[in-house]
Amino acid sequence: MASASQDPALQLARRLRSLRKQGMRGKRITQEQLAEAFGVSVPLISSWERSADPTLPPPHRLEAYATFFATGRSVERRPFRLLTQLGDEEQTAKDSLLSELNDLRNRALDEAGADNRHSSRDDLWRFPLNEDVTIVCSELPERVLQDRPSTDPEDPDFVALYRYSDLDSLLELHGHIRATNPDNDVYVRPGSLSLEAVAYTSHLVLLGGVDWNQVTAEMLHRIDLPIRQQERPDDSDVGGFQVVEDGALKTFRPLLRTSEGRQVLEEDIAHFYRSRNPFNLERTVTICNGIFSRGVLGAVLALTDRRFRGRNTTHALDRFAGKQSFSILSRVPVVQGSVVTPDWTNPHNILHEWAM
């Protein structure tokens, strides 16, 4: 592990701070002015500059720094701005600065590979070394299982996973978490209240909602979340997510259409929630939920699908910098029965965001 003076993450934070204070020929720029130019929050700028445990900016934010400080034209008038076109000399200055900043960031990531101090910042599914992760799945009700003999432990062909709902989400998420955390123990457990006590104090990942996952229902009683999932007493009920916003109750429901006498799902709703674990503040609890199973899968794919996970992670880290808890409700398009990964950077896909 590098000393504090040699820590590349701290070096990058100091460099960004010095650019802001001295990078324009002695012109001191405030965090508020820089945040306005970048279109981000002041706490996010502060998190990149702080002298203890700084956050690593994503690559496109370092490019913004390099663009902004490559030319005095960025501060010629107020509000300060990011230019879209640079002259030859300005472009050369940008390239040089960007190379320096990227080098510090890459060194910080290399260091993180050794001591795992900063790894969680670039992937919300990366957890600190040697900290257990427990994925808790919804269990299918007995009325669904009664025709599946392989769910009976006495059956020679018994398969424990046959009892679980959301198997496509479990397969996708378990593989991603194991690949991202090769030295952590990752467990899969049923969402019943018989879950062993030690699992509650690990990093908890809950798949599915209040209908079939009792652990999700129990956790929602213990966290301050202004979003409620309507229970579906009968499989024919649609249900929805309820949000109180500006004193008014809003309900977000999936979109179905009737085709040849049956209901076809065109759009589900995904709910992604992350906070500290109320049973162990040094661990996290994450909920991936939906009205139907495709909503659960959409919540998972948002941060595992390689085409979208980078931009969605950046959106969450930028949007909720400095927050201990956050929640995103998003649309999940379903085309010919297949789930289309939600893009959180598309405002049309975002139904509701909350943080504290």
Automatic annotation (TrEMBL):
SMART domains, sorted: HTH_XRE
CDD domains in alphabetical order: HTH_XRE (cd00093)
GO molecular function: DNA binding
Signal peptide stretch: none
InterPro entries linked: Cro/C1-type_HTH, Lambda_DNA-bd_dom_sf
One Pfam family cited in the UniProt record for this chain: HTH_31
Domain HTH cro/C1-type stretches: 16-50
The protein's name: Transcriptional regulator, contains XRE-family HTH domain
Organism: Lentzea fradiae
